[in-house]
């Protein structure tokens, strides 16, 4: 699991706790397209998230049961877990 910029309990200027987005990218295989897609997603998320996003990629070819909990029927699929 790869995690990008996990910021827990980061306070904003008004001392309110900011929401942390937890994104999961479900993919299959260790291909060049998977690596490129994850890099592009990471770059996009970084540009809009202000550092309060946890991003992971889930390889379904290694553990197909991962898809059951999020009801994944097609890949690649991006799932927002929180908030």
Question: Would you kindly provide a written description of the structure presented here, covering whatever features stand out?
Answer:
With 83 residues, the protein is of the alpha+beta class. It has 2 helices and 3 strands, in the order βαβαβ. The chain has one domain (21-82): Glutaredoxin (3-Layer(aba) Sandwich). A 3-stranded mixed sheet has the order 2-1-3.
Overall 3D form: flat
Going by CATH, what is the homologous superfamily? Glutaredoxin
Q: Characterize the largest beta sheet: strand count, sense, and whether it forms a barrel.
A: 3 strands, mixed
Mean pLDDT: 75
Number of domains: 1
Q: Helices and strands: which structural class? A: alpha+beta
C-alpha Rg (nearest Å)? 14 Å
**CATH class wording:** Alpha Beta
CATH architecture: 3-Layer(aba) Sandwich
Oligomeric organization of the protein chains: single chain
What is the share of helical residues?
A: 25-40%
- How many alpha or pi helices? 2
Low-confidence stretches: 1-16
The rounded distance between the terminal residues' Cα atoms is: 19 Å
What are the secondary-structure elements, in order, as H or E?
EHEHE
CATH fold-level assignment: Glutaredoxin
Name the beta content range: 15-25%
Number of separate strands:
3
């Amino acid at each position: 699991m790869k995690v990008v910029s996990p910021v827990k309990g980061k306070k904003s200027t008004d001392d309110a706790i900011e929401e942390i987005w937890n994104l999961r990218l479900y993919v299959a295989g260790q291909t060049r397209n998977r690596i490129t897609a994850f890099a592009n997603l990471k770059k996009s998320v970084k540009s809009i998230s202000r550092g309060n996003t946890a991003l992971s990629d889930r390889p379904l070819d290694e553990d197909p049961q991962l898809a059951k909990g999020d009801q994944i029927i097609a890949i690649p699929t991006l799932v927002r877990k929180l908030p």
